[in-house]
Write a structure and sequence with these properties.
Blueprint (H helix, E strand, L loop, with lengths): L2 E10 L3 E4 H5 L6 H8 L3 E4 L5 H16 L8 E5 L10 H9 L5 E5 L5 H14 L5 E9 L9 H4 L4 E11 L5 E8 L7 E2 L8 H9 L14 E2 L1 H23 L8 E4 L4 H10 L11 H4 L6 H11 L8 E8 L3 E8 L1
Parallel strand pairs: 4-5, 4-6, 11-12
Antiparallel strand pairs: 1-7, 2-3, 6-7, 8-13, 9-10, 12-13
Bound molecules: coenzyme A.
Length: 334
C-alpha cells in the first residue's frame, strides 16, 4: 500500500523578538498575566520578512535535509491565512524563489489547521499517484493582522514558517489514521476581514445613492471570542484525537508524542488531561514563539527533529484547531 513519509523538515523565524515586558509598554497587561494564562513569554515578529520569504527559507532547509533538489519536487502546498498578496498565491511565489520549476503549487487556507489539511491533501495526491513527493509549508505573518491595541489577542500570536518534504513510500506505515472537520456555522468566534470590503463598483453606486458604507477599522484585524475558542479547543481536540486514533486502530498509550497546535499551554494541559495522557508527551515551543497558526505544527516538528527527539518508528499524533472553525488530527509513524 502506498503511503507517505516525512524525509526533511525546516523552519524560519523573524529575527526580532518581542517579549511580554515589551507588550507591557503597549497595552495594559503584565508578563505574569500572559505567562499564567497562556504560557507564552515571547514571540518573533516580522520587521520586513514576509509569508513568502519565511516559507522559502523553511523550504530550503527542508529540501536540504531531505537531500532533494528543488526541481525534483512535484507539489508545493503553502498553508497560510496571512498572505501579503491576493495574487499570485504564496505557493507559486515560493516555487519561483526555490526553483521548483516542475511543481504544481497552490495555497490552502484553513487557519491554524492549515498545515494538517495541507498534509492530508498531499497524502491524497501521493497515494493516488498524482505526485511522488511534496513540499508542505505553513507560513504566517500574523503581526500585520493583529490589533496591537487589543490586549486579549495581541499577546497570543507570532510570525514564522515551518516546512516538511514528504515522499511516497511503499514500505513505511506513514499516516495511520485521521479525523478532519470544518464547521462554518461557528466561524464568527474567530475572524478577520479583508482590507477592501467593498468593490470599487459598490463604492461608486453607494456614493451615487449617498449611502456611504461605514466600515469599522477593527474588522481588518483578528477578532476573537477567546473563551469560546478555548471551550471549542478543549472539547473538540480530544474528541478529534480519539477519532483519529480509532481510525488507526490505536489508543492513547500507543502514542510516543502529541505534537499539538501551540495556541495556549492551558489548552494543551486540558487536552492531555481529558485524554488521560502523560503531559510529558506533549512538547511545546509556544513559550518562545507564541501561536504561529498554520506554521505552529511544522515549526515544532522541525525543532523536535533537529533536537533528535523524533525517531523512525515513533508513533506521533499531530492535532490542530482554528478559525473556520476547523479542526484536525492525524496519527502517523515517523
Ligand atoms: N492582560 C491582562 N488582563 C487581560 C488580558 C491581558 N493581556 N487580556 C484579557 N485580560 C483580562 C480581561 O479583560 C478580563 O478582565 P475582567 O475580569 O476584569 O473582565 C480578565 O483578564 C479575564 O479575561 P478572560 O477572557 O476570561 O481570560 P481567559 O482566562 O479566558 O484568557 C485567553 C484569555 C485569550 C488567553 C484565553 O481565553 C485563550 O487562550 N483562548 C483561546 C484563544 C486562542 O487560542 N485563539 C487562537 C486559536 S487558533
Amino acid at each position: 500500500m502506498r503511503t507517505i513519509r516525512i524525509t526533511g523538515t525546516g523552519s524560519a523565524l523573524p529575527g526580532r523578538i518581542v517579549t511580554n515586558k515589551e507588550l507591557e509598554q503597549m497595552v495594559e497587561t503584565s508578563d505574569e498575566w500572559i505567562r499564567e494564562r497562556t504560557g507564552i513569554a515571547e514571540r518573533h515578529v516580522s520587521v520586513g520578512e514576509t509569508v513568502v520569504t519565511l516559507a522559502s527559507e523553511a523550504a530550503h532547509k527542508a529540501l536540504e535535509q531531505a537531500g532533494k533538489r528543488a526541481e525534483e519536487i512535484d507539489l508545493i502546498l503553502v498553508a497560510t491565512c496571512s498572505p501579503e498578496q491576493y495574487l499570485p498565491c504564496c505557493a507559486c511565489q515560493v516555487q519561483a524563489a526555490v526553483g521548483a520549476v516542475n511543481a504544481l503549487a497552490f495555497d490552502v487556507n484553513a487557519a491554524c489547521s492549515g498545515f494538517l489539511f495541507a498534509l492530508n491533501t498531499a497524502d491524497a495526491y501521493l497515494r493516488t499517484g498524482l505526485a511522488k513527493n511534496a513540499l508542505i509549508i505553513g507560513s504566517e505573518v500574523l503581526s500585520k493582522l493583529v490589533d496591537w491595541t487589543d490586549r486579549s489577542s495581541c499577546i497570543l500570536f507570532g510570525d514564522g514558517a515551518g516546512a516538511v518534504v514528504v515522499e511516497r513510500c511503499e514500505a513505511s506505515p506513514g499516516i495511520l489514521g485521521r479525523a478532519l472537520h470544518s464547521d462554518g456555522t461557528g466561524g464568527g468566534v474567530l475572524q478577520c476581514g479583508a482590507r477592501e470590503l467593498t468593490t470599487p463598483y459598490a463604492r461608486t453606486s453607494a456614493a451615487k445613492t449617498d449611502q456611504k458604507q461605514q466600515t469599522d477599522d477593527r474588522e481588518h484585524y483578528i477578532q476573537m471570542d477567546g473563551q469560546e475558542v478555548y471551550r471549542f479547543a478543549t472539547r473538540r481536540v480530544p474528541q478529534c484525537i480519539e477519532e483519529a486514533l480509532a481510525d488507526a486502530g490505536l489508543a492513547v498509550p500507543d502514542i510516543d508524542l502529541f505534537v499539538l497546535h501551540q495556541a495556549n499551554a492551558r489548552i494543551i494541559d486540558a487536552v492531555a488531561k481529558r485524554l488521560h495522557a502523560d503531559r510529558e508527551k506533549f512538547p511545546t515551543n509556544l513559550e518562545r514563539v507564541g501561536n504561529l497558526s498554520s506554521a505552529s505544527i511544522p515549526v515544532l516538528l522541525d525543532e523536535l527533529h533537529r533536537q533528535g527527539k523524533l525517531h523512525r518508528g515513533d508513533r506521533i499524533v499531530l492535532a490542530g484547531f482554528g478559525a473556520g472553525l476547523t479542526i484536525g488530527a492525524c496519527v502517523m509513524t515517523w
